[in-house]
Amino acid sequence: MRISEYYNLGKNQSGLDFIDIRLDTDVAVFIDPTAIHGLQSKWGHELASLLQTFFETVLDNIKNGKHTHAKNLLSSLSERNEFHLGFSKGKSRGHAFGTISANSVWGALMQSRSSLTGLLEDLEDTCLMIHGIGPDMISDAVCNILRGPLIKYTQDMCEYYGIPLEQNISSGPIWNPVKGKWEDALVSLPLTPEYGKFILIPKNLVRLRISYKSDEYYRHYILPELQSQHINNMSPLVNVLKNGRLKVHKTDLIDEYGADKLAVVEQTLKNPHVLARYRQDKKSRPSKPLTHETLAEVENIPTHDWQTLAHNLTAVPTGKADSTKYENIIESIFTALFYPSLCYPKKQTPIHSRRKIVDITYTNEARAGFFFWLARHYPSALMIVECKNYGNEVANNELDQLSGRFSLSRGQVGILVCRSFKNKDRFVQRCIDTAKDGRGYIIPIDDDDVITLMEYREQHPYTEDFPLLKERFNLLII
């Protein structure tokens, strides 16, 4: 049973910010460390820092002979089932480093010269060079290292979606980067009698597989480098083809050097620039978040139904009495519509010492498309959304209200969404005047525009371009 079903959330996967895990087993997706390194938000940088400090601490302890402490650090990466990610069939089991024991991992790091020569820099490097460490283990290790912020994310999402929290639940080991050690705490977490506690994962962090793959690295980076070296040296492995071209067969190189992770280590030690190039390629071409369609296929659920959302939107009565209903349906639509560009929704966020409230905010995590362009040119770390379920014309007060929510840290771009405009051109002109006065950039849209955006997304399911928003924004700046 999925989270959305167990708690009757009335939303499917595309309308949720987190992976709608099955409580009785795992979902076959993984957290990719390179996806975390690609995040540009403050929260993303916090996650990346936690991963970096943990692995640096382990390696520093090994290099300094503090082997017992290193083993203790690794032992806290033991398998747990709160995250429900991976390949488990039946009850979730986890596949973290503890599966082959802290002693085995420590021994691999000790015996591998890579740990002593500085080849390893990041956690994901271990799956390239250490026998027995695979992608599922990397993903579970990442989950455990990020347990602290993921617990906070779970608490935020439970509050946001109305999932009850139980107090004084054991957190499990939480990595403290300042003290360089694991700590336990009593925290608030969701708890079910049948399945126990669980921790939620943002869906923009998961992938079908992690980016670092030992076989890929060896066959497409190490072996081509060896081919070039053998040709330059005219070694006995060089073959002259009929057309005169020189060639070294990869199979001959594998026979000569092997193809296991020991061979990877040996050749990387001799050619460290190849590993540097592999890392740079992964950094410059990070994997993309999974689409609605891919998630539906992995989880064996129906694909997103834009028409139902459009029907639900128009079914909300106009007027102040149904303002909350209107805000909720707009959030459901925008969460699905603007994923993966906009993430981590929050509703009714207080600012200015709680004197003002923002209807909806999203973190701008865009790496392509309209919101990525926006982030490169205008302060838009957060996207602020104000919803007006009015039956009459939206007035200047509403513009002033939204512009008063802007700041350099939060951002200076927002969307004002309402049921309709009596005179859309006149209201757009008011938004242009607001922008020219230096009071922020307000993109005005109504229900018809929202439906147009959904129709465009339905026709272009993989897009992060939203021509209607770009056209409307251009009016503010040209």
Mean pLDDT across every amino acid position: 89
Strand content: 5-15%
Please state the CA-atom Rg, rounded to the nearest Å: 26 Å
What percent of the residues sit in helical stretches (DSSP H or I)?
40-55%
How far the N terminus sits from the C terminus, by CA atoms, comes to: 51 Å
Strand order of the largest sheet: 11-12-13-14-15
| Tally of structural domains | 3
- List low-pLDDT spans: 351-355
Count the beta strands: 15
Largest sheet: 5 strands, mixed
Shape: globular
Q: What do these coordinates show?
A:
- This protein has 478 residues and is of the alpha+beta class.
- It has three domains: 3-207, no CATH class; 214-284, no CATH class; 305-477, Restriction Endonuclease (3-Layer(aba) Sandwich).
- The chain is built from 21 helices and 15 strands.
- The chain has a five-stranded mixed beta sheet, sandwiched between helices. The protein has a two-stranded antiparallel ribbon with strand order 1-8.
- The longest helix is centred in the N-terminal third of the chain and has 22 residues, at 42-63.
Task: Sum up the structure in keywords.
single chain, 478 residues, alpha+beta, Restriction Endonuclease, 5-stranded mixed beta sheet, two-stranded antiparallel ribbon, 21 helices, 15 strands
What is this entry, summarized?
The protein has 478 residues and is of the alpha+beta class.
